[in-house]
Input
Amino acid sequence: MATCPDEIVELLPWYVNRTLDAAARVDVERHLRECPLCQQRVGNLRALQSALTDRPQEAVLPHVEGILDRLAPPSPAKPNWQWVWMLVGAQARVIRRDIWSASALVMALGTLITLLSYGPSQISVGALPLVWAAPVVAAGGVAFLYGSSVAPAIEIELASPVSPRLVLLTRLMLTFGFDLVLGLAGSVVLTLVRPSLSLWPLVATWLAPMSFLSSLAFLLTVLTADPNVGFLVSLGLWAVQSTAGTVDRSGLSWLIPDLTAAAARPWLWALALLLGGLALWTGGGEERWIRRSM
Amino acid sequence: MQGNQQAIAELYDRHAQRLLNYLAHLTGDADAAEDLVQELFVIVWRDAARFRGQSTVRTWLFGIAHHLGMTALRRKRTLPLDESAGDSLADPGPDPDALAALAIDRERLAQALQALPAPHRAVVELVFYHGLAQAEVAQILGCPLGTVKSRLHYALRALARAMREQDGNLS
Output
């Protein structure tokens, strides 16, 4: 008995219930081949397991209707702010943590590079690094809001009185809102340090493309169930914009419109609302489809 | 969309029987266990948004069941308020290997299980009856893995001793 390693003896109950991972199971089996005492222990634990699992059922499962009767329909009368806060808190924990840090890092870098590179010769707000960083950061974050990687709790979500679309909308608002705050903070810093920049024109320049690109990334992720598609397509689109910005647009304007231009903003807002709404509608339906297949 | 009773019915079909068994064995009261299962699913319906996705649905449900079961036992004043109180019990004696010498009589086993401190009984049930992995048991009980192992060690020793004593009393 003294020769049996404690760490092996401690694992025997989980060896018996077959939940050890492969490496631990191999270690236990290697020891068992050489140790009659532990073989006996395993036999004893299996006898205990058998005696426990063979017990007769004493309790009677209550009929599900008895429980459903106790489930009051959720009241739509007035918003319960504690409940809203709970929903937001729960979804904030579901969203991948690296989205927050990566977004903050890229946006901070965009602001810093803008600060360092901005000078009197800068004529176009649309060419500022922050204006290019904000839409990509938001699209990247939003693209990774949907799919099995952020819905480990799908079974619970479906059983809750919360609409899947409301859950998606909460995640969307959280991520987009976070990036919006980051963009605003960067813009405020820029206008404080470089008084020649005006806050609202700067914000308007990145906010419309950011909304459009985020909605596009979200819709593509929902449609393909692959966050990489949503992110890479929106990134590619923005890269084409960036490249087009370095060449003479006069011949390309009909092919690659300038999404940072003031004239494009109404279209971008409208498209953002349309694509975002479509993504939410489709995404909620998709989750119902998952439930039917469970 | 309003609350989805169909979804909770599916959740119930999938997990309720195992949760009922766990609660019946933990509390030793089949009637109370039925009430607790109903209470559990009402909680799931009401508080699903609190699910953090850091564990499986089964582990989350068992965690709620464990909490409800322990609360019910405390209400009956059969359990100290501090759930870890049983962790400092003196070593109950015989090695778990002593189980070897005993043919396991179900009735005596049931009595021996009910004589265990509830947190120790919970570990035995979760490991041997419900077949849960180490990490799942630790999550359900809300304690470190080391505590799970020590509770199981003490529980097995206490079971062996209790059954040996019963054996001696009978002979």
Residues 241 and 256 of chain A are 7 Å apart (CA to CA). Residues 286-294 of chain A have pLDDT under 50 and may be disordered. Residues 6-53 of chain A form one domain. The first helix of chain A runs from residue 6 to 16.
